[in-house]
Design a protein that fits this description.
Order of helices and strands: HHHHHHHHHHHHH
Helix content: 55-70%
CATH architecture of the largest domain: Orthogonal Bundle
CATH topology of the largest domain: Cytochrome Bc1 Complex, Chain D, domain 2
CATH class of the largest domain: Mainly Alpha
Number of helices: 13
Structural class: mainly alpha
Number of domains: 2
Radius of gyration: 26 Å
Number of strands: 0
Shape: globular
CATH superfamily of the largest domain: Cytochrome c-like domain
């Protein structure tokens, strides 16, 4: 057993933790994606390495296994991991194989959701989502990029998707909590890399998003449009302010240069 743990540790478990554990367990059941325990016994090595390298290409190519997985997991496709190489994919597969042989893998799944979610959790989660209560590690609030149905006011941002139905889409409490531990989307990963969500923030956010899914009311498109219009008006106002501050100076400099040029030409003439 000790020898297996030593060999698995040599295969860089941090890579799996940061890029795979938010959607997969090894022996802990399905999350957003399937449980990877003994995956090498279910799929060929060549297929796994090809899929890890470019999931989207295989889906678009109509690979029947990928199409079936895509439908089985609520039309959620595994994102391509940034910087993935054949050698790195082989290392990850080697780690999964080693962990699969253990009695219990260190990646058997998060224990963040270890009690029933309460109405007070929903209220705390809403405060965190809206930024009324800061995230413990200083990350930006969810409303900066996302909206949720039933929100008052401007309804939230739209850089990211509407999260009203994300609870069901990713596969429930455990899967959503695992995603928040280490999000791998191209937008979220760099933002939260140095400001990972604290477990004490994750549970109430999961409770809030679960409540939003149960209410099933999509975000107000009018509120989202208002958010965009106000943002554009704000940008226009900033340009006006900058022009009033710097525009006059630039024009006076240009006028001075033009006058010098005219005087020089008159003198030469």
């Amino acid at each position: 057993m000790a020898a297996l743990q030593s060999r698995a540790a040599a295969l860089d478990p941090q890579d799996f933790a940061q890029n795979c554990a938010n959607c997969h367990t090894i022996g802990g059941g399905r999350l957003t994606g399937p449980d990877l325990k003994d995956v090498s016994k279910r799929r060929s090595k060549d297929w796994i390495l090809k899929f890890v390298a470019d999931p989207k290409k295989m889906l678009e190519g109509g690979d029947p296994t990928v199409v079936e997985l895509y439908k089985s997991y609520n039309n959620v496709l595994m994102p391509t991991v940034a910087g993935m190489t054949a050698a790195r994919a082989e290392q990850l597969l080697g780690l999964i194989d080693e962990e699969s042989r253990l009695e219990k893998s260190r990646f058997a799944g998060s224990q963040l959701i270890n009690r029933p979610l309460l109405p007070s959790d929903v209220a705390d989660g809403k405060a965190l989502f809206l930024g009324r209560k800061p995230l413990k590690n200083g990350g930006p609030s969810c409303v900066s990029c996302h909206s949720v149905g039933g929100m008052s006011g401007l309804g939230g941002g739209f850089l990211g998707p509407d999260l009203t139905g994300v609870f069901a889409r990713v596969g429930g409490e455990k899967a959503l909590a695992a995603w928040m531990v280490s999000p791998v989307s191209p937008t979220m990963k760099p933002v939260y890399a140095a400001r990972a969500m604290d477990p004490q923030d994750i549970l109430p956010l999961v409770a809030f998003l679960k409540d939003a899914a149960q209410r099933g009311r999509p975000a107000d498109s009018i509120a989202r449009l208002a958010f965009l219009i106000i943002g554009l008006l704000g940008a226009a106002a900033m340009f006006v302010v900058f022009d009033s501050i710097w525009g006059g100076r630039l024009r006076s400099v240009r006028r001075s240069l033009v006058n010098k040029t005219i005087l020089s030409e008159d003198h030469d003439g």
